[in-house]
User: Which sequence fits this backbone?
C-alpha cells in the first residue's frame, strides 16, 4: 500500500458509516416515500435516496451544531431534488420569494391515499411544501428552514397547492406505457445472463462482462473491474443458500431482472438487478439487494411477498 492509495482511508471510515446507517435507518422508509412522491418514480426515488444519504454522510465533518436526523435528511433530499429540477429547467413559475401568509382554515387535504396522483399537478416547490406539511407533518417553520425560504412563502405555496389539487380529479398518476425490454443487439447477452444466473454459474456471468465493468451494490459498495466483481459479489452470490431464479420484468417502465427466491415453499422477491450493455458486454450492473423500500414496492407491483434483506450487512 502506498501513500497515494485512497483505500487506506476507507477502513476506519467503514465503522463510522455503519454508525451513520444505524442512526438514519428508522427514517429510511419515510425518506423513500417522500422521494417517491416528489419524483413520481420508484427508480428515481431510490437514486434520490442514495444521493441524499451520500451527501448527508459527506456533510458530517462540517456540522458544528446539534442536528435532528430526520429533518436534516429531508432537507438534503428537498434541496437535491430542487437542484435537479432547476438543471432540467422544471422550475418555471414558483420563485422562493416572500408572499402574504395564508393560514389554513380547513381540514388537511382529504385524499392522502392519492398523493402520488395529486402531486403530478404541482410545481416542484409546491410539491415539496405540500408533502412536507400534509403528509410528513412538518410545521411551516421547519419546512421554511429545510427549503431556505420563509414561513409566509411556505404558507402561500401550500394555499396554491391545495387550490390546484382541488381542481384535479379522475386521473391515474403512474402511466403504464409499453416499454421495450432490451434492444435487438442486447437480447443475446440478456438471454445468456438469465441462463447463467439460473444455473448459478459465476464464471459464465463474468465472461459476459466488460473488463472495466462497474458493479454498484446500491447503498453498500462499488466494485470496479471484472476480476474484482468475480472474486467478491459474484462469489458471494454463488454461495448464497437461497434457491433463486431470475427473469426479465418491466417494472415502472424499466426492464430489470427480478430475482425470485423461495421461502417455506412460496416464491418471494429476493432481489432486483439492472444491467447496462454496450457492444455485446455488460458495462454496469446495479444490484438493489439492500434497497428494502424499493423491493417492497416492487413485490407489491409483482403481487408476490418480498424477502427483505435489511439496509446493510
Assistant:
Amino acid at each position: 500500500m502506498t501513500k497515494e492509495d485512497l483505500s487506506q482511508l476507507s477502513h476506519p471510515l467503514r465503522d463510522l458509516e455503519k454508525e451513520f446507517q444505524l442512526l438514519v435507518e428508522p427514517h429510511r422508509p419515510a425518506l423513500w416515500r417522500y422521494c417517491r412522491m416528489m419524483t413520481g418514480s420508484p427508480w428515481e426515488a431510490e437514486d434520490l435516496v442514495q444521493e441524499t444519504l451520500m451527501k448527508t454522510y459527506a456533510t458530517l465533518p462540517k456540522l458544528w451544531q446539534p442536528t435532528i436526523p430526520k429533518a436534516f435528511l429531508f432537507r438534503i433530499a428537498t434541496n437535491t431534488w430542487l437542484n435537479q429540477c432547476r438543471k432540467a429547467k422544471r422550475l418555471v413559475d414558483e420563485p422562493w420569494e416572500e408572499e402574504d401568509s395564508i393560514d389554513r382554515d380547513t381540514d388537511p387535504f382529504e385524499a392522502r391515499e392519492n398523493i402520488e396522483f395529486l402531486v403530478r399537478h404541482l410545481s416542484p416547490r409546491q410539491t415539496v411544501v405540500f408533502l412536507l406539511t400534509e403528509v410528513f407533518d412538518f410545521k411551516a417553520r421547519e419546512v421554511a428552514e429545510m427549503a431556505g425560504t420563509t414561513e409566509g412563502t411556505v404558507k402561500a405555496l401550500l394555499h396554491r397547492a391545495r387550490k390546484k389539487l382541488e381542481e384535479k380529479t379522475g386521473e391515474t398518476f403512474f402511466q403504464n406505457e409499453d416499454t421495450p425490454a432490451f434492444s435487438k443487439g442486447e437480447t443475446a447477452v440478456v438471454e445468456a445472463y438469465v441462463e447463467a444466473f439460473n444455473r448459478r454459474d459465476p464464471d459464465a456471468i463474468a465472461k459476459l462482462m466488460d473488463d472495466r465493468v462497474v458493479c454498484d451494490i446500491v447503498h453498500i459498495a462499488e466494485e470496479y473491474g471484472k476480476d474484482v466483481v468475480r472474486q467478491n459479489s459474484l462469489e458471494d452470490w454463488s454461495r448464497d443458500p437461497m434457491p433463486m431464479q431470475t427473469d426479465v420484468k418491466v417494472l415502472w417502465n424499466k426492464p430489470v431482472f427480478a430475482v425470485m427466491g423461495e421461502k417455506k415453499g412460496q416464491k418471494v422477491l429476493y432481489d432486483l438487478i439492472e444491467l447496462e450493455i454496450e457492444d455485446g458486454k455488460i458495462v454496469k450492473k446495479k444490484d438493489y439487494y439492500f434497497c428494502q423500500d424499493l423491493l417492497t414496492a416492487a413485490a407489491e407491483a409483482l403481487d408476490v411477498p418480498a424477502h427483505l434483506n435489511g439496509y446493510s450487512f
The CA atoms of residues 1 and 8 lie 8 Å apart.
